[in-house]
Amino acid sequence: MQFPTLLILSSLLSITSFTTINAAPLTSRAVRDSTDDATTLAAINQLLALFSQSLDNKDFEALRDVYTEDAVLGGEGSPPTVGIEAILDFYTTTFQNESLITEHTSDTVLGSNFTETTASSTSYANVYYFGPAVFERGGVLFRNDSAQFREKFSNDYTRGADGNWKISRQDLTILSLEGNAGLLRPAPGS
Q1: What pLDDT score was predicted for residue 184?
Q2: What is the three-state SS of the chain?
Q3: Helices 5-14 and 34-56, interaxial angle, to 10°?
Q4: In a 10 Å sphere around its CB, with 0-12 CB exposed, 13-18 middle and 19+ buried, how is residue 71 labelled?
């Protein structure tokens, strides 16, 4: 999987927020192969950055590089969404309001359970939703409606035969909401 240079630079700058947790004793494989774990964490960070960028750019086809074909997307209070096509449909429907602008920022990526082909992580994200512009002044658009979510993602990853990591299961927990959640509704006439 190829990533734009800017995305890689952004990821390298934020790698300091990574923490690796392994419950095994210090003599474990995880400690001996800590370079491999760091490489896995960097790949996971790239994947989470691609996930955020895909949503913010409404480039839902790019999510094919994020999720496995049989991925499961779960959340509190709703049935799981199973398979890449259903996940793409979910995000396309959720973010179909063309006037909606989003900004996803991920932090505190906590990696664990590393093997050659699997890994897990817990991460937190601030997600901002901005409604349509209400006026323009001096070339700047002003918006008076917004919402902010604080979210927790619990992800399981699988490394494919091509060596690339993808999310095989993602569970989302909404920790807090401020503002107008109605911004996620489709625009009239959509």
Answers
A1: 64
A2: CCCCHHHHHHHHHHHHHCEECCCCCCCCHHHHCHHHHHHHHHHHHHHHHHHHHHHHCCCHHHHHHCEEEEEEEEECCEEEEECHHHHHHHHHHHCCCCCCEEEEEEEEEEEECCCCCEEEEEEEEEEEEECCEEEEECCEEEECCEEEEEEEEEEEEEECCCCCEEEEEEEEEEEEEEECHHHHCCCCCC
A3: 120
A4: buried
Q: In the chain, how long is the greatest CA-to-CA distance?
A: 62
Please report where in the chains the tokens 């209070």 appear, as a residue.
77
C-alpha 119/C-alpha 182 separation (Å) is: 35
Task: Write down the pLDDT at residue 46.
Answer: 92
Give CA–CA dist 160/162, Å, rounded. Answer: 5
What's residue 186's pLDDT? 56
How much is the pLDDT for 188? 54
pLDDT less than 50: residues of the chain: 1-34
Beta carbons of 59 and 28 less than 8 angstroms apart: no
Question: So what's the pLDDT on residue 60?
Answer: 94
